[in-house]
Amino acid sequence: MKWITRERPKIDRIASPWLIKRFVDATAEFMYVPFDQVIPLAEAEGAIPFDVVGVEYTHYEDQCTFDYIIKKHGIDDPAVLIMAPIVRGADTDRHDFAAQASGLWAISAGLAYNESDDQALLEKGMMLYDALYSWAKYLQHVKHTQQPFEQQLMDIFNKYLQQEKDSRKVPGWAKELKEIIQDQIDTNLNLSLKGLSETLQVHPAYLSREFSKYFDDLSFGDYIRKLRIDKAVQLLSTTSHSLTEIAYLTGFSDQSHFTRVFRKFTGKSPSVYKKGLTKK
């Protein structure tokens, strides 16, 4: 079956063809033409017009054409039903309908801006909506952990956090956590206890308090900074790197920040510490 709509599609006029081809008619063909030619060409070609005023397949109240196709053809796929408010929100500028609506609009607008050929745009859009469907079906509850190491931290806390605390004995999670931190500090310099607490849905103050009991009476942040300074001391003693290079290699935003933290933990600036090494 042929379908026809206005040229230069962005949201609904790509999402709806995707829905039709995936759930209604896999052999469907789509035509994009100037607005004033949609109805005449629909009659001439025997095509179904959509997403224009006065036809069956179009908007109704706050529902877009994508919604109507779902209703008309009885599509009850759970992932499609999750996609519906995203498409509707992006197409009607109601980004409050779904958190993903604004992102879909931004990507679709950029795609249309970059691609001037409507058929090529549809082809690329099919990939976009296939990806959105996969997210809705398999990945919507999966969180993007920014560092694989943070996932290790979460696994450790999930494993041990609920165990009864024994103040006379270092708990297993603290021992394992210390080993993991020591193993990873050279390659992962952006560890976040706040992000960890949010993922675990445990108040960050509680994690911070428990952490300090078993890590030299230091907060998570101070403990990580201490390890960075230990690494900096090692680099100062064994390499010819400049202070700026060492600051970068140990995860500090700039040399000034590195100097302040180094002085806090050693009582000396990095330059004074380095001069002392050359005198020995």
Please supply descriptive tags for the structure shown above.
Arc Repressor Mutant, subunit A; 280 residues; 2 domains; 3-stranded parallel β-sheet
Describe the protein in words.
The protein has about 280 residues and is mainly α. The protein has two domains: about 1-140, no CATH class; about 150-280, Homeodomain-like (Arc Repressor Mutant, subunit A, Orthogonal Bundle), CATH 1.10.10.60. Helix content is about 60%, strand content about 5%. The chain has 14 helices and three strands. The protein has a three-stranded parallel β-sheet with strand order 2-1-3, covered by helices on one side. Helix 4 packs across helix 6 (about 120-140), helix 7 (about 150-160) packs antiparallel against helix 8 (about 170-185) and helix 12 (about 245-250) packs across helix 13 (about 255-265). It is elongated, with a radius of gyration of 29 Å.
